[in-house]
Amino acid sequence: MQIGKYRLIQKLSEGERVETFLAEDARGPCELQRVLPELTRRPELVKTFLSEAENASCLVHPNVQRVLDFGTEDGSAFRVTEPIDGPSLHSLIQALAAQGAPLPLGVCAGLVAQAAMGLAYVHALTDGATGMPLEWAHRDVRPGTVRVSREGVVKVSDFGIAKLAVHDLRTRLTPVDALAYKPPELFQRQSPDLRGDVYGLGMVLYELLTGLRPFVGQDLVGALNAIRSASYVPAVERRPDLPEAMQRILERALATDPVERYPDCPAFHADLERFMSFLDEPVGPDVLARWVARVT
Fold first, then answer.
1. Is 140 a catalytic residue?
2. Which of 8, 77, 139, 189 allows an S-S link to 21, with CB 3.0 to 4.6 Å?
3. Which one from 25, 140, 219, 271 is the annotated catalytic residue?
């Protein structure tokens, strides 16, 4: 199958609004996301998709997946991103859980620290004309939208896709899964600011450390109530070797009140770097790459 100059090789995922393919053109491999064919008759959705793709194409940071191209071709609205030759953190967590291999504390901190740098870059962007902060939040930070390459480089993906309510087949999001990473203020009819991404990234850290999602309930209603009230199981109950320093980092990232949360991703990143500085071994991309190699 062909979309313009891009040959589609394999479908990677399909969501409510968008499907993603491994693709290639004359330059080599890439990933291509397109609006589902049956939704192309909704001009407002296509317009939003292309507008967000244009915005995302301006993002240039080693910890953010690049958008290389976007447009419409033969009735298909699409955007093309750089390929990432490694798993999402969701896949990494699942694979290591199946092996019974918990991630070392430093690896968890290193993965999230890199993601925090990518988010910090986007959060700090300003309007070129006015110099005012754009305050561009991701709004869907979760293990499925953070990926790590075989070289140990972490990249936050899917900027702008949250507006289309995309859910990845690779994570099979249920209502509980889809809401578990959303900040508590969202359920209090408040509009989350950039600290909502801090909360989502804190949830990613929790799941990396424990291998489990933070919220439990006897049934769907119970789980949803736990999410709305941010009543998560303390990570130390699931990982007793968790040091106090890491417990404090988690508690601050996951604070119910945004005022008590890390004010931004640089502050979150700084505490993670400080934590790693006290570890016996440095946690660089080479260390992360070895863990990726275990599951790919």
1. yes
2. 8
3. 140
Which residues, other chains included, contact 174 with Cβ-Cβ below 8 Å and sequence gap of 6+?
none
Q: What is the pLDDT of residues 160-185, one digit of tens each?
A: 887 665 333 334 445 566 678 888 88
Burial class of residue 81, CB neighbours in 10 A (0-12, 13-18, 19+): buried
- DSSP-derived 3-state class of residue 122: helix
Which amino acid is located at 165 in the chain? A
How far apart are alpha carbons 155 and 115 in whole angstroms? 6
One-letter amino acid of 17: R
CB neighbour burial string for 225-240, b if at least 16 within 10 angstroms, e if fewer: ebbeebebeebbeebe
> Hey, what are 69's tokens?
């191209």
- Domains, the chain, ordered by start: 2-81 (3.30.200.20), 89-293 (1.10.510.10)
Span 108-148, pLDDT tens digits: 999 999 999 999 999 999 998 999 999 999 999 999 999 99
What does pTM read for this prediction?
0.92
